Amino acid sequence: MAFEPPQRLVRALGETPEPAQDADWLGQLPELAETALTRREVRAQRVQAPGGRSSLLVLVRYADGTPAALKLAPPSARPDLELAALAHWGGFGAVRVLDTRHHEEDGALLLERLHPEVSLRSLPEAKALLEACGTLRRLWVAPGSGHGWETVAERTKAQAGALRTAPAEVAALAGAALEAREELTAAPEEELLLHGNFRQGKVLAGERAPWLTVGPDPLVGERAYDLARLVRDRLEDQVASSAGAAGARRRVNKLADSLEVDRDRLRGWTLFRAVESGNRALAAGRRRDAELLLEFAAWL
User: Fold this and answer.
1) How many helices (H) and strands (E) does the chain have?
2) What does the pLDDT look like over 284-299, one tens digit per residue?
3) In this structure, what is the dihedral angle of CA atoms 28, 31, 33, 37, given to the nearest 10 degrees?
4) What is the 3-state secondary structure (H, E, C) of 51-66?
5) Both 87 and 139 in a single domain?
6) 87 near 78, Cβ under 8 Å?
7) pLDDT higher than 70, residue 270
8) Model's pTM, two decimal places?
9) Matching InterPro entries, A to Z (predicted)?
10) Interaxial angle between packed helices 244-258 and 287-299, expressed in degrees from 0 to 180 and rounded to the nearest 10
11) Domain finish residue from 97, 113, 129
12) Does residue 262 surpass a pLDDT of 70?
C-alpha cells in the first residue's frame, strides 16, 4: 500500500526547528514504513488520517489477526524518549508498547491498537475533564534515578529565549509570561514524569481500559506544568463563550483543585504556555491560532 504522509503532518513538520532534516525523513517515509512493517512481521491495513502533527500512524495486524498500530516519527521528535516514557508507565494510564526489538534500528513504535477516532473530545466537556484528570493522576509518577528526560526548566529556557525577541504585538504578554516562568523555576516544587503535551485529543478509547493516553513529549517537573495545556483545551469554545476572563480563571481554579495543584502555579504555567504557543503560531503564519491563544493568555 502507499504510505503518503497526511497533509497535516507535512504542514506541521514544515514549522519545526529543523525543517530540512524533517523533510528528508518525509521523503524516505514510504521506504521506512515498509521496512518497519517487514521487521516486525505485521501487515498494514491503512494509514490513520488526518493523523498526528509529528508522526505517521499505520493501523496493522499480526499474522494471527491481532490488531496493533505502528508509529513512525522523525528523529527530531525523539521517539526514543517517548518509548522510555511509555515503558516507564507500563500501560498504566497510557498505551502499551508491544515490541521494542527493532526500535534502535528505525525509531518506530509498535503499540497496542486503540480507537484513534474516539478521544475525550467526543465527550461532553465536564465528563471529558473528569476522565482527563483521572488519566493524569496515573501518569504522574517518580521518573526513577538516572532518567534521561529534560526538565521543565530546561525545556522552557529555550522557549523563553524566543519570547524575548517576540514582535511588538506580543511584547506585553511575553514580558508577563517570562516573569511568571522566572518565579516558577526559581522555586520548583516537584520532580515527576510528565506527559508534556497532554490534552483531551491525546486520550483515546481502548479495549484494555476505557481511556489511555498517547503521544507523550515527556519531561520531568511539576504537575502544574502538565495540567496547564489542558486548561486551554477546546479553546475556540472558551473564547466564544460569554464567560471571558472570569471563565478562564474559574477553569484554572477548578482544575487545580481537582488535582490538588497550587492555583497560582497553574495560572502561571498556563499563561507561559499559552503565550509561547501563540508566539510560535504567529511566527508560523497561523494568525487565527495565535490570536485565540493570546486573547486567552490576556484573560489570565
Assistant:
1) 12, 10
2) 889 999 999 999 999 9
3) -160
4) CCCCCEEEEEEECCCC
5) no
6) no
7) yes
8) 0.92
9) Kinase-like_dom_sf (IPR011009), NH2Glyco/OHUrea_AB-resist_kin (IPR006748)
10) 80
11) 113
12) yes
